[in-house]
Every structure is written in C-alpha cells, then in structure tokens.
Amino acid sequence: MEIWELGARKILSMVSSREVSAQEVLDSFLSRTAEMDPEIGVYLEIMEPDARFSAAKIDALLLRGDSPGLMAGLPCAVKDNISAMGANLTCGSRILEGYVAPYDATSVRRLRSQGAIITGKTNLDEFAMGSSTETSAFGATSNPWAPDRVPGGSSGGSAAAVASGMVPVALGSDTGGSVRQPAAFTGICGLKPTYGLVSRYGLSGFASSMDTIGPFGASVWDCALVLEAISGSDPDDTRTSRRKAIPYTKKLGRSVKGLRAGVPKEYLAKGVDPGVMAVFHDALEALMKLGVTVEEISLPSSQYARDVYRLLSSCEAASSLARFDGVRYGFRAPAKDMSDMYFETRTQGFGEEVKRRIMLGTLALSAGYYDEYYLKAARARTLVIGDFQEAFRNCDVLLSPAAPTVAFKKGQSGDLLSSSWGDTLTCPANLAGIPALSLPMGFASPQDEDCPHGTFEPLLPCGLQIMGKPHDEETVLNLGFAYEESEGEEVSRRLLEMRRGLLKECEPV
Asked: Could you tell me if 157 and 79 are in contact, meaning their C-beta atoms sit under 8 angstroms apart?
C-alpha cells in the first residue's frame, strides 16, 4: 500500500517512530498530485519548495529527538482565500491576479507550528461565492467520484484534494455550507466550527459575521486533529473565543448512549432526493442502535433562513469587496481616468456571481431600502438563533442530511432550485454561529433529469449533518466518531476503491 493511501493517524505514527521520513511522505503525496491533479483541477498553486523545506525541518527535529508537533509530517492543502506567506492569494478571482500574500493566516501559522506541511493553494468559487467550484476564474474542479460532476463549493478544491488522496487533510472556509456540502459530495468529513473558535485572521472576508475556517479529513478523527491544532484565542481577531483549548482527539470514543438528537421537520419537508432521504433514515436507525434518542422537532424560522443568509451575506460582501478597486494591489484595467479605471477594473476583474451579490448587497444597504431589507433580515436572523436556542433546551444535537442531493453535473449550478434548498440545510448553522459536522452516511443514485431513478448510474456519496450547541464540538465530533466506527467500514472501503480506480466508472446501482 502506498503512503498516500494510509490515513492521517497511521502516517503520524510512522513519522513519529521514524519508520518513514517526512520527506518520503511528502514525495508520495506530490507524486499522487502529479498523477491526478491534471484531471481533477484541485490546485491553483503547488508550494513544493516551501513544502520540501518544511519536511526537511521536521526530519531534523525528529533526528534530534525533539517533537515537531501534533501534525508532524502531515501534508495539508489550503483553500486559496486563506493567506500563506509567499504564495499567491487569488480567491479564485482575476481581480487579485499577481497578489502574493505577505503573511500567514493564523490558522496556517498554527498548522506550521504543529508540524503540518503546507502543500499548496486549492481552487474555490470566486471569493467563496458559489456551490460548485465553477465560478472560479481559473477553471472548474471535478468530483473524484465522477469527473463530469462538481465537487461542491465553495471549498470544492480542498474537498477534492482529500477525497482523491492528494492530501490527508485540508483547510476550507464555510459561510453558508461551503465546507459541509463539498464534504458530502466527495464522501469525506468536513467541520464548520463554532463562530469565533478558529481565528479568521488571514481569511479574505465574504460575510464576516458568518465566515469560519474549517477542516476536511477522510475521517472524523482527522477533522478533530486539525481543529485541535488551529483553534484558540488570537489577538489578531478580536472575535475569537478565550475558552481553554480542548484536545479533541482525546475526547473521541466515549459512549453516546442517552444523547438526545432532534430532526428538524422543516429540513425534510421538501427538496431532499428520495435516495438521500432513505440513506438518512438508515443513519437515524444506526444512531438509535447506539443508544441515541431521536425525535422530530420544529425550527419554524428555517423558512426564512435561506433568504436571510443571501441578503445579509450579500450586504457584507458588498462592503468587504469595496477595497478591490485596482489602486493598491491585484488587477488594474487600463483606463483614461480614475473613475473609468475603478469601473473597468471591477467590471473586468469580478465574475458574474460576485457582481450579482455586490449589486444585491449595495441595493439593500442603500438609503431607500436599508430599513426595508437589511434591518428586516437582521431581525429575522435573531428568530433563527432563537429557534436553535429553544431546540437545544431539549436536544444535545440536531441531525439532517448535509445536502439534499448527491453531486450534480457540471453546468447545472444555474438551476438554483436544489442548490437553494441545500442552503436551507446548511446556512442556518452559520446564521446562529453553531458547530456543524458533515460525514459520509452512505451512497445514493443521482436524480438528474437525464438520469431518472432506477437507471444504472454510479452510486455517489451523501452526507449526514450533525449540529451542536455553541462550543460543543466535543459532542458533535464524538457522535460523528461513534457513527463512523459503527457504520463507516463500507464507506471507507468504497473511498479507497474510488481512489485506486479514480476516473473509472463506479459500482452501478
């Protein structure tokens, strides 16, 4: 078995015991990347010289008998809206063409300090606005399970990197589901932490009141490891929590018997494919066998969550993207005067989806519409938060599918019906700032118009979403770990088979 096929835990054990060197681990993953990335389109930049320097440093520390940290020798990819010093920071947009990050984001700095090897920057929807990684100015990323389908978005590059075995773990960002939905589409785990648990310093803002940096991994343990490395208070981000750091990996494996889980009926009312729903019900039965009490609950304000998210996030995006004007950095369009330069730079530099959101946000913040739109949306957000607070009086966690469908085909992201319902499943957690984990729960067949139910099409992964109380990642991860331990063998087997037979037809229904 190749090194890249091993899980993060096994690789860490082998590096710490010096059974393999960090250099050998890196060579294996870079070789895998050279083989697969031309077909998948994961990386916008591979940071090989920097990665080799880091690997050599880790090997030297181990040779001296020193500990390089929690993630010693573990390769990690980083979404390209998170700053890594000396690497390009494009956010998937032409308007940042040529911009090189002068510093590390806090999350990247903490990964390095724990011995992780940063391998490169991954593709994303432009400024994290999208759900398919197709709005990137530098081309679309493919889903490793079916290359004609999307890996989800906006963190599709990071998710596809982990799913295809190019790295064992990766960082993404989640504003309305951008870690959880790609994790569901690619058959891996992805965590959106509590707002403020992980520093946003060095993350290019989309919607600052909802943005979170979160980990991807092939298993729940992998996500817990990365969260343990990057979480904690940061003086450079005043919104980070000052709570004591938790060794999340050491909290896994406890009994989940007696946990109370709520299933919001509004999340399942419509829009979820029958195949995904069937797998979700199987997951609920598996959790009940573990001693979890499952009951239906109501989150009545969920009906507003999608529209509230889109309006508020667009308002915040319009504000945060105002600084991209061609004056200080990035792309500048040739023009006859200053006014024309502003207009042409933003017109040519931003893609269509970004421009739509800027225009919507600018309208909602304008003098004639501020009270009518922005303030009403802000008030509705408090209703969403109140629903969660009420639900958590009687429940320890909430459960739902992480996405209403399996991965859809490229070019179908313009059909907003299913993607809008997908926002309904994920964005409430961002509005409320609570933690949410997506992990594989099984496989379902696509329900595309040209792929009706019952036809012989590939089985594709779908995800289970576990939402928890603020700062209760410990319970969320432990429940996910327990489910994975009891039901994850088949998923792990298929993930490995997919990697070994990548770009070949999956097992038919």
From this structure: yes
Question: Would you say 440 and 463 are in contact if contact means Cβ atoms under 8 Å apart?
Answer: yes
**For residue 29, what are the CA distances in angstroms to 15, 224, 488, 499?**
14, 21, 24, 13
Helix%, strand%, coil% for the chain, nearest 5: 45, 15, 40
pLDDT > 70 in the chain, percent: 95
Cα 309–351–337 angle (5° rounding)?
115
Task: For residues 14 and 10, give the distance between their C-alpha atoms in angstroms, rounded to a whole number.
Answer: 6
Q: Which conformational region is residue 192 in: left (phi greater than 0), alpha (psi within -120 to 50 degrees), or beta?
A: beta
Residue 255 CB coordination number (10 Å) = 10
- Whose tokens are 């118009």? That residue is 449
The pLDDT score that the predictor gives to residue 509 is 36
Dihedral pair phi/psi, residue 363, rounded to 5°: -60, -45
In 3-state terms, what secondary structure has residue 484? helix
Catalytic residues: 79, 154, 178
Instruction: Round to whole Å and give the CA distance between 102 and 80.
Output: 14
Q: How far is CA 73 from CA 104, 268, 321, in A?
A: 19, 42, 36
**What angle separates helix 220-230 from helix 106-113, to the nearest 10 degrees?**
100
**192-242 pLDDT, tens per residue?**
999 999 999 999 989 999 999 999 999 999 999 999 999 999 999 999 999
- Summarised one tens digit per residue, pLDDT across range 5-49 is 999 999 999 999 999 999 999 999 999 999 999 999 999 999 999
Q: Is 418's pLDDT higher than 70? A: no
d(Cα 117, Cα 47) in Å, to the nearest integer?
10
CB 43 within 8 A of CB 77: yes
Residue 456 above 50 pLDDT? no
Question: What is the model's pLDDT at position 489?
Answer: 80
CB atoms within 10 A of CB 396: 19
Report the amino acid identity of residue 145: W
pLDDT at residue 450 tops 60: no
Listed residue (156, 223, 148) closest to 183, CA to CA:
156
Would you say residue 442 has pLDDT above 60? yes
CA dist., res. 370 & res. 392, Å (int): 32
Distance separating alpha carbons of residues 376 and 379, to the nearest angstrom:
5
- State the DSSP code for 140: P
Encode 154-183: b = buried (16+ Cβ within 10 Å), e = exposed. Answer: bbbbbbbbbbbbbbbbbbbbbbbbbbbbbb
Q: Report whether the peptide linkage leading into residue 154 is cis, meaning its omega lies within 30 degrees of zero.
A: yes
pLDDT level of residue 97 (50, 70, 90 thresholds): confident
The gap between the terminal CA atoms of the chain, to the nearest Å, is: 28
Give dist(CA 277, CA 283) in Å, integer: 10
Which amino acid is located at 466 in the chain? Answer: I
